[in-house]
Design goal:
heterodimer, A: about 110 residues, mainly beta, five-stranded antiparallel beta sheet, about 60% strand, B: about 110 residues, 11 strands, about 0% helix
Amino acid sequence: GIQVEQSPPDLILQEGANSTLRCNFSDSVNNLQWFHQNPWGQLINLFYIPSGTKQNGRLSATTVATERYSLLYISSSQTTDSGVYFCAVERLGTQKLVFGQGTRLTINP
Amino acid sequence: DTGVSQDPRHKITKRGQNVTFRCDPISEHNRLYWYRQTLGQGPEFLTYFQNEAQLEKSRLLSDRFSAERPKGSFSTLEIQRTEQGDSAMYLCASSLGTSGGSLHFGNGTRLTVT
């Protein structure tokens, strides 16, 4: 099956800092999504981004499908950004999203 | 749009008992997924429905697990003869379209098998 690797596994930052999270995948995909799992366990969809760049407020994401990676940028971090960020991909010819192991982000005040 | 709803939120059961979970997807979504998540891991795919048809099942879904989606609306996930290794968060998600689309998760059902 497709492999999804996220880095770094853990990231600790001060409020106001910027961060970049990376997702590498091992095969061609037709679907890539980023999620935030908050400390209460709720998974929130951040971006549906199989290719290109999208922005939503302080968050933006870029997927370079030909090079099999995606990046999630968080600017001016807030404590509410803490949690685990997951990348999930859907390999061509399948209909299931496969999740990476996540990046745990901790934003300290 | 009331979101994806799962019931119950928590379930504690004794080993060997059967349990059933329910998921109500976002009403216009035709795709419904079940995932399982254990502590420190990403969600693992279990099974997927498009309308009422179950189109894919993971090897993780042993013969003790069965999922249904009658009439293409709500879905149930049943685990028979539960084992301690079944303890996990069971997540339901739904999406719209034939080529994926944004996946929306419910709050999950946390199962503890004692």
